[in-house]
Design a protein that fits this description.
The protein is of the alpha/beta class. It contains four helices and 39 strands. A hairpin with a 2-residue loop joins strand 22 (about 185-190) and strand 23 (about 190-195).
Amino acid sequence: MEFTAKQIAELIQGRVEGDEKATVNTFAKIEEGVPGAISFLSNPKYTHFIYDTQSSIVLINDDVALEHPVKPTLIRVKNAYESVAQLLQFYESMKPRKTGIDPLAFISQSARVADDAYVGAFACIGDGAKVGKGSQIYPHAVIGDGVCLGENCTVYPNVCIYQGCQVGNNVTIHAGTVIGADGFGFAPNQEGYAKIPQIGIVVIEDDVEIGANTCIDRSTMGKTVIRRGVKLDNLIQVAHNCEIGENTVMSAQAGLAGSTKVGSWCMVGGQAGFSGHIHVADKTFVGAQCGVIKSTKGNGETLIGSPAMEPKTFFKAKAIYPKLPDMYREVAQLRKEITILKSQISNQQDETEDTKG
């Protein structure tokens, strides 16, 4: 499908500079632009690419002043990054959705699948499971017994949703993710470790997106809960009885130990780790590779480092760290000198006492 600059500007409430009849049919990064593509410029570091790009249309912020004329048609908007996201969402929505049940899929007779849902080859839907309107289940996915999958969900290949778990509407679960595996519960005894049965479930609310190969464990009792609007990256571990608050986002390889509660609108960097049984307040920013070992103080806190601390303290400590070898040698030398001085003082005292005697 082709769109003109005028049509795009109307869609995103932008202003055209150049040929409003210029057409595009694909997207491209500004440094890799080709004729017929639309690109965007939001980061000042990439401004120089606009003078050479071959893209036909470029989205650009209203406040950007260009030093030289440019070849592509410009569409000026308040925020180019947000506008391209809006266009990509529109583009994605134009793609045809799959419907129908592949003859190689297995669906239990007691399951209920909406008429317009899609179930791919070798997918399996268990006893008593429910699949809502417009949902798409790709090949080799497993929807376990009693699972409730809401409307307009997308479950990509090799996803496994264990028995009894509940998934809301407009949820996307990427390939290889496991929802509802047993939490890591074992009680040590004289013979080794006795498994503690995990009899709870996982509840995923509306508008959640979960990246590939992420694992969300079922609770020991009760629920592990992912609240509305949460976005989880690939390779994230959420342990049993955890709760992640609304609209929180987490980058790849973050890990939550059991019964951790993360508030709403938090941002968590890659490889961050959380100890169990702690509470992270709303709007907390947790930096990459951060180790959070205790509950946070209050809303809006920023934490970096391991163990987690305030940035000011972290950078003070970081500045000292490279100096530690020299400081160690200085301390060792001072100890040696102190030992010598103590010995000299002791000898002088002994000589004084001998003279008095």
